[in-house]
Amino acid sequence: MNRLFRTLNKTALVKAAIAAVLVVIMVLIGSRNLQYFDPALIAYLIGTVFAVFGIAYRYSVWIQRPPTRLYWRRSMQFLFSRHFIPYFLRSIRLFFRNIMFQRFLAYRGRTRWIGHFLLATGCVLAFAITIPLTFGWIHFILKPGDDITYYTYVFGFEAGSFALGSTLAFIAFHGLVWCSVLVTAGVVIMMKRRLTNGGLIATQGFENDWLPLILLMAISLTGLGISYDYTFLGGKTYQFMAVTHAITVILFLVWLPFGKFFHIFQRLAQLGANLYKKEGSRRGMAVCPHTKKAFASQTHVDDLKKITRELDFDFSKEDGTSHLDLSPEGKRSALARAHFRARQESGHFFG
Amino acid sequence: MAKLPVAVDQLIKQYGPHKAYTPQAGFYGAHEPDKLVKTHCCYCGMQCGIQLKVKDNKVTGFEPWMEFPFNEGRLCPKGVQRYLQNNHPDRLLSSIQRVEGKGFEPVSWDRAMAKTVSEVKRIQEKYGRNAFAMLSGVSITNEKSYMVGKFARVALKTANLDYNGRLCMVSAGGGNKKAFGLDRSSNSWADLAHAEVIIVAGANISETFPTLTHYIWQARDNGAKLIVVDPRVIPLARTADLHLPVRPGGDSALFGAMLKILADNDWLDHDFINNYTSGFEEAIAAVKDYDLDWAEEQTGIPKEKIMAAARLWGKAKTSFLLHARGIEHHTKGVENVLSCINLVLATGRIGKPYCGYGTITGQGNGQGGREHGHKCDQLPGNRDITNPEHRKYIAGVWGIDEKEMPGKGLTAYEQIEAIHRGEIKGLISICFNPLVSLPNNNFVREALEKLEFYMCIDSFLSETARHADIVMAGSLHEEEEGTVTTAEGRVVKINEAVTPPGRARRDGEILMELAARLGVGDKFNYASSEAIFNELRIASRGGTADYYGITYKKIVDNMGIFWPCPSLDHPGTPRLWEDRKFKTPDGRAHFNPVPYRPASEVTDREYPVVLTTGRVVSQYLSGTSTRRIGKLVDQYPEPLLEIHPGLALQYGIKDRDLVRVETRRGQAEFPAQVVETIREDTVFIPYHWGGKHSANQLTIGNLDPISKIPEFKVCACRLTPLGEQVPDTMTETAYQSGL
Amino acid sequence: MPATDYNQEMAFFVDMQRCIGCHACEMACAECETNGQESMIHVNYVNRAESVQTTVQVCMHCEDPACANVCPADAIHKDDFGVVHSANTSRCIGCSNCVLACPFGVPKKMEEAELMMKCNMCYDRTSAGKKPMCATVCPSQALFYGTREEIERMRPDSVPVNSFKFGKQEVNTKVSIMMPKGTHQLIVE
């Protein structure tokens, strides 16, 4: 236990604690001092707070690594520069394109993108519904004397109404059902890939590749089970459905900062990488001394020289240049030439 | 009427070439194929073993065949991509007929057959039997080669049958028959691995027979010295112990001078020369004046290098000499070959372990296809169509009257000339794309346009097939069972992986039905490919290329059998001449005097630069198949003009400048590739493309007097830079052979 | 869950001077199921104007991979067999740090897919006891996959070297390069 505490990252710990406290404060504010908090959701709330703590902790540890820290700093520096407006707009556009719609996955495979998009959209929508409910930020009431109109309250303020039995009501109250359907369809597509693609079969692991899919499937099915139960079974199996659903969701929340799902948060760095590339090429490209062609931004090459030094790699040469000044093709050619020379000097190319 | 029915662009749009790629996730079922079929690559003479993956009667991929002894899984890029020729969008799924102004339209088999037969009859009645000719190829199996030979003589009854081996290795065949009385590489490749000295003359092994490289490298690991004779620093030559950058056309001068050095230094095997050869004195007399100064002048090779090569060869205990098209594609191709054989015989290094000699056959069945009677002067078993005894034997096998058997006909290029003169009016071709592969192809096009009727059997609409009246949809390599004989003389089994798609049919079935409709169905009544092979075995029996002892079962059990194999209990003959019993009339190996003479067209003030042609690793022959495979096209998208910086400087040509190359026969434009890896007086263009990118618009149609091979490897040209830099790939569509 | 019939006796040996630049490895690499028709191996002319020398480069699978160190997303993982795997597809953010930091010039950035891919020595094949595609088809055996005993027997005057020096940095790898006898390190200047 002592060792665990010693290895804990203090900065990250502080940041994670702040994040968790902030969430609790927001819950208190949003639910008007728990006035509108649904006690039945307490387990979910605890899970979510824990997840926030974990995510903030891991994120903080993550961006302390030299390459990540540099990317983080550069992203901020480039974004908040005199090009703020175009870069900001670009980032927004890419946020929708690549984070919300994950369009880049289409280039890795069409069905793969469809599968991922379905399950990601299902998950995001489900969170958008459940988190405000869990936190008590949103609640619905029937006003006395009017038993056919539902009133929605957000952060304690009235924010609209709809008629009971209307299409809107149907859609709203079954929102999680739709999410489950999306997630299930997505999971089935992704599972089929993992069962039939030879390359995936060879490289996949249980914890990182199958467990997340199984967990999502379990959440969706148990969630659907609750709906099925009160729609068709009159609540006979409610207890069972509710408990299993809660268990799967809380497992998911607890695992979120540590397992595969953490990539949801890491993925945002892609926007930074894009900005870095854009601003880098604006500042000037590095030209490979071997191929005589531009291959990356000079900023990137220079930054990597620093990062590699921090990581105890020293590719610098006696003459002050660096092996990293070469493009990938230049590096391969340099190796081949060195090998050619060695063979030639030995007098034999073969043997 | 064999002009194009519509503009070529319209034909390309419909029939390609289009580039095929494997889908990103692989073809459906590639991961779990129904079966893996052990067969061979459809391309070069190495005939590497390969397993094709088959799902739902479609080839979806390959898996290396590790057990096949020649290549043990190794393949070149063409071999890796070969599976894409199947399941290809350009594939002809039914026979088609020419419709003036419209292009081609599908036609029923009945109509295609009836039309062909009526045209054969009409032309033969009107102009005589020999006015209807047939051209064949040797990328088809032994069974089909044999059947084509029989079909032309028995069904078409024409003397004019020849094949595209005529532009492949016939000079080697001619030389080998003169020297040894038999036409086969003398050794299996296994003998290469321990040879002390290896000469590779005019054979771009690393690009045209990549899988043979392993054997050469193995030999070098074992200490062999490698001598490469080539005007260019080919990949094989880059690390060679000696590279002799011969001026195109100088080969026999080089080998003549080397022979003189061997004699002068007594690096000879007198015992072998005296007891097993003839003609040594005459051969030496022919080269008596070929000293090093003379040789340097004729060959353009520094004399120290010639001396060094002769010394290495002369002093070696074991050796292997290999050659290919580089010395064979000449008007003195046979002489070049004989000058090589003289070096082998003078040192007596043949018929012993690790001592060998051979040509490397280019086409898939270049060896087997040249033995079973679809050459104009040949009958099965490498028999002679002018020899009365041979005629009688084969007439007996075929069940015809010997007198009915036509005599010797015209060779391939002579046939084209005869078509051009109006003597041949009708043509059937199979597996041959002369519009890309023959020299001076503007002349070939003119000839094709003069034909009254042209029927072509092919799987794709090749450049030549675009000129046909009827194209019958035939089969691919993997769609018909059979055998081929590899460049080392190993007879191997080709297995049917899938059946022909759509209404396409097996080539063998097409020929059988045509024969039946021509009234000789009883002579072409085969139940299977094996039945054809069994007839071939009998037909070859007693000939020099004796297959009698080879059966399908024996081939499969032994992963190939080397002919000659005269009896069922015979194990085959990987290494020839161990018994020193040569197949010449006197039983001896023959030296032949080879006085040097220049190429048929030499450079002059008007055309001051030597033009030579050749191949690239990603393409095979005229590209009918490989120009349809995306990655192979992309690897080398268009022909480039290789030129030395010294010569380029004279003309002010820079890398990627567009250059017009002109010869007395035509002109074409190519982007320059300025490289130090070629002789300064020579430019090089690869030939696999048709239309306006075709190098064979420029080459010369002069033939070797014996082998009748055209002189692809030397002619004179002039260069004009057009003052235009072109991007990395100038013409994305060069592979389509547009005009 | 992956099938692990990984034979650790087998090793990868490269000799670029045997390479004939035919690109068979590149075509075959695309057949490997882990990279779906993308080729991970590199074949390029060293300087075509001067020479036909080509070089062929597979991932050398470094003992301490620079690519994994510089990855901001922890996407590159070296397994217990010493195989450095292609980027974890869910983590890789396509920043190209690995592409530029690899001293051998191996990783490839798939621009549209925002993903780095690299050679994993045909994990689908090697983990099932087969040879990698490239080394299987290589007609010059510039790429050889087999046991150390085999290569020592076949190429008696060469020695496998798995240590490199790039500038001041020493890099040790799982894959070896065939060098003249007596060589211990390939120094790239």
From TrEMBL, chain A:
The keyword Transmembrane applies. InterPro entries: NarG-like_sf. It comes from the Bacteria. The keyword Kinase does not apply. Keywords: Membrane, Transmembrane, Transmembrane helix. The chain crosses the membrane at residues 12-29, 41-59, 117-142, 162-189, 210-228, 240-258. This is MFS transporter. It comes from Sinomicrobium weinanense.
TrEMBL record, chain B:
Residues 34-90 form the 4Fe-4S Mo/W bis-MGD-type domain. It holds the Pfam family Molydop_binding. One of its GO terms (molecular function) is 4 iron, 4 sulfur cluster binding. Residues 365-384 are annotated as: Disordered. CDD domains: MopB_CT_Fdh-Nap-like. It comes from the Bacteria. PANTHER family: NADH-QUINONE OXIDOREDUCTASE SUBUNIT G, RESPIRATORY NITRATE REDUCTASE. This is Molybdopterin oxidoreductase family protein.
Automatic annotation (TrEMBL), chain C:
The keyword Iron applies. Keywords: 4Fe-4S, Iron, Iron-sulfur, Metal-binding. GO terms for molecular function: 4 iron, 4 sulfur cluster binding; metal ion binding. Pfam families: Fer4_11 (PF13247), Fer4_4 (PF12800). CDD domains: DMSOR_beta_like. Residues 10-38, 50-81, 83-112 form the 4Fe-4S ferredoxin-type domain. This is 4Fe-4S binding protein.
